[in-house]
Amino acid sequence: MIPVFDALDSIEAHSIKIHLIGNGIEARVGGDYLQGAMGELPALGMVRVFVAEADAVRAKKIIQELYNKVEEDDGSWIPPELR
Questions:
Q1: Residues 29-54: what's their mean pLDDT?
Q2: 29 within 8 A of 5, measured Cβ to Cβ
Q3: Alpha helices for the chain (secondary structure H)
Q4: Whole-prediction pTM
Q5: Whole-angstrom Cα distance, residue 53 to residue 1?
Q6: Domain extent for 38
Q7: Picking from 20-24, 28-32, 44-48, 78-82, which range would have the lowest pLDDT averaged per residue?
Q8: Which is more confidently placed, 9 or 52?
């Protein structure tokens, strides 16, 4: 397995993993337990999402599409009173 995504934290990594699995790509998270060793300091760059080498190109494309959707979000899902 090879890394396809460097996450900011364990939550982001596992969210990406779940998204990839939902798209038919076996994925694993590595390094999420290393964050606890850092204590109060942010452990950036330690948590990664891994996929099989054969799925790497497709996985990166799916991740990019996911983040493009987030950037294009118009906020219409937010209740008007909270906007």
A1: 76
A2: no
A3: 10-22, 56-72
A4: 0.75
A5: 6
A6: 2-73
A7: 78-82
A8: 52
